[in-house]
Input
Amino acid sequence: MIGLFGGTFDPVHLGHLDVARAARRALNLDRVWMIPAKFPPHRGRPLATEADRVAMLTQAIQDEPGFEISTVELDAPGPSYTAHTLARLGIDGSALDRWCFITGADAFSDIATWFDYPALLDRCHFAVVSRPGCGVHALPAALPSLASRMVPAGENPVSAASRPGIFLIDAPTAPVSSTSVRAAITRGLPLTGLVPDAVADYIASHRLYLEAHGR
Output
């Protein structure tokens, strides 16, 4: 099974990697595709260029076997909607043993605002991973209409599922966001514990985000 993990990755940080790793372990994913967005529909355009964001992702996953980068969203016009991405990949809910969309619990808590909700939840499985301040255990109460589809990963094996499920994965993930990384850069603070060393080196050598504070 392939896990699909979309995001702006502006820049990619250790929290992103923790989410992807947790999903891969919990669901025994064969591969994880990191999918950088062209630009998200509810946010401003990324501060780093597409080339820089792909380059940082390349550095971040160089020692992660099974992790790959897909440019399916960068190659498409307009804002990046998950429903459109799944459609471009031909994911229609007919092959439940092949695809799983990965997201953090903080992002999934706003799922009702995503384009083509709730139909997009019928296209593939969703793997939802705890984030600091937003654990997966709170999601059934926060999203009662989806509670019957939520199961802790491991209790209902993906291979046995007859419909797309929402698999809850409670795992520790680094308390970092792209916003906090950019703020640290503009304040001249070290990025240790925020991004992989190779990503920190890339940011420094290309002088990225030096004027990003407050944006």
